[in-house]
Design goal:
This protein is of the alpha/beta class. It has 10 helices and 8 strands. It has one domain: Arginase, Chain A. An 8-stranded parallel beta sheet has the order 2-1-3-8-7-4-5-6, with helices on both faces. Belongs to the arginase family. Agmatinase subfamily.
Length: 351
C-alpha cells in the first residue's frame, strides 16, 4: 500500500505486472525513477525486491559506477595489518554492507530522507597491500583523494584504525586542518608499536604531527580502560586533545555532552572517526581490542544526531571484526552508525 509519508511511495506506484529485474542493466536497482531523471537514484526498493536478494551495496544504494555524480560516496577499506591484538577488521566492510540491507530510506530522528536529498553511492573497496603498511597508507590516501574530486564527500568503512591517517591526509588537502571528534575506547595517540609508526594505535599522533588537525578542536569521546602509563593522558592533552570518558557520558548525560562537543568544534570543518569499540562489548563484541564499560549504541546514535548542525566534511567507522561478532550485533550497530553519518552529511553542506 502506498504511504504518502514514505519518500519511495511518492514516486510511481509499483506495478505488479512489471516487476523490476535486478539483473536488468536498464534498471539494476529496481528503481522507480525514470531514466535520465535528475533526482538522486535511491536504494533498491525493498517493497519490490526482497531486501535479502541481490548483491550487497551499503543500504542497497547504487554503485558509484551506476550514477553520473555522487554527493556522498561510501567506500570500504578492507585493511587490518595495523592491529595490535585480534585481526579480522579486513572483513568489516563486507559485514557492514550485509547488515545494512534492513535500512529504510527515511530517518525519523533527523526528519530527512537522506538518499532522496543527496546522491549517495557505494564506491566499493579500496584494494590495498596487506603486506606493506606504508604502501597501503599511500594507496588509501590516493584513492580517497580521487574519490573526493568534484566535491564528493566520503564515509569510509574500515578496516582498522590505521586508515584514519591517510583519510585525514586526503581531507586536510581539501579543507585544511580539521576539527576531530574521535569516538573510541582508546586514545590512538600512542607513538609506535614495535617501532612501527603507522598502526591502529597511532593515527592521531601522526595526524597532529603532520598538521592535519586543528588542535583547538580535538576531542576523544568514550575513552576508558587501562593505559600504558600515567603519562599517556598528559601527553595526549599536550597534542591538543580533550577527553570525554565513557563514564562522563553516563554521569553528565547525552545532551550535556552534545553541548560540550558543539562548543569544542564550532563551525570548523569537522571529521568524525568512530572506532566501534567505543561501544560496550555487549553492544559491539565483534572488534579487535574490546574494553569493558563502553557506550550503548543508543547513546552513541543520540550523540551523533545532536551533531546535525556541525560542518561535517567526512567520517569513518572502523574496527568491525566480524569473526568475533554474534548475530550481527556489531555489524548492525555499525550499519546504523554509517546511516546516521550519511544523514548528517546530507544536512551539513559545507559553506
Ligand atoms: N584502535 C584500536 N581499536 N585499538 C588501539 C589499541 C592499541 C593497543 O593495543 O594498545
Ligand atoms: Zn579503539
Ligand atoms: Zn581506535
Amino acid at each position: 500500500m502506498a504511504d504518502p509519508q514514505d519518500p519511495q511511495s511518492l514516486q510511481d506506484p509499483p506495478n505488479p505486472q512489471d516487476p523490476p529485474n535486478p539483473q536488468d542493466p536498464q534498471d539494476p536497482q529496481g528503481s522507480r525513477s525514470p531514466q535520465g531523471s535528475r533526482s538522486p537514484q535511491g536504494p533498491v526498493d525493498s517493497l519490490r525486491v526482497p531486501r535479502y536478494a541481490g548483491p550487497a551495496t551499503f543500504a542497497r544504494l547504487p554503485r558509484l559506477d551506476q550514477v553520473s555524480h555522487a554527493d556522498i560516496a561510501i567506500v570500504g577499506v578492507p585493511f587490518d595489518s595495523g592491529v595490535s591484538y585480534r585481526p579480522g577488521a579486513r572483513f568489516g566492510p563486507t559485514a557492514v554492507r550485509e547488515a545494512s540491507r534492513l535500512l529504510r530510506p527515511y530517518h525519523p530522528g533527523l526528519d530527512v530522507a537522506p538518499f532522496a536529498v543527496a546522491q549517495v553511492a557505494d564506491a566499493g573497496d579500496i584494494a590495498c597491500n596487506p603486506f606493506n603498511i606504508d604502501e597501503a597508507v599511500e594507496t588509501i590516501q590516493d584513492a580517497a583523494a580521487s574519490l573526493m574530486v568534484g566535491g564528493t564527500r566520503l564515509i569510509t568503512i574500515g578496516g582498522d584504525h590505521t586508515i584514519a591517517l591517510p583519510l585525514l591526509r586526503a581531507v586536510a588537502r581539501e579543507h585544511g586542518p580539521v576539527a576531530l571528534l574521535h569516538f573510541d575506547a582508546h586514545l590512538d595517540t600512542w607513538d609506535t608499536y614495535f617501532g612501527a609508526a603507522y598502526t591502529h594505535g597511532t593515527p592521531f599522533r601522526r595526524a597532529v604531527e603532520e598538521g592535519l588537525l586543528d588542535t583547538e578542536a580535538l576531542t576523544h569521546v568514550g575513552t576508558r580502560g587501562s593505559l600504558y602509563s600515567k603519562n599517556d593522558l598528559p601527553e595526549d592533552r599536550r597534542l591538543g586533545f580533550g577527553v570525554i570518558t565513557s563514564a562522563d557520558v553516563m554521569r553528565r548525560g547525552v545532551d550535556e555532552i552534545i553541548d560540550a562537543l558543539h562548543q569544542r568544534v564550532g563551525r570548523r570543518p569537522l571529521y568524525i572517526s568512530i572506532d566501534i569499540d567505543v561501544l560496550d562489548p555487549a553492544h559491539a563484541p565483534g572488534t579487535g581490542t574490546p574494553e569493558a564499560g563502553g557506550l550503548t549504541s543508543r547513546e552513541l546514535l543520540e550523540i551523533l544526531r545532536g551533531l546535525a548542525t556541525t560542518q561535517l566534511v567526512a567520517a569513518d567507522i572502523v574496527e568491525v571484526a566480524p569473526a568475533y561478532d554474534h548475530a550481527e550485533i556489531t555489524a548492525i550497530a555499525a550499519s546504523h552508525i554509517t546511516y546516521d553519518l550519511t544523514t548528517l552529511l546530507t544536512l551539513t553542506r559545507p559553506s
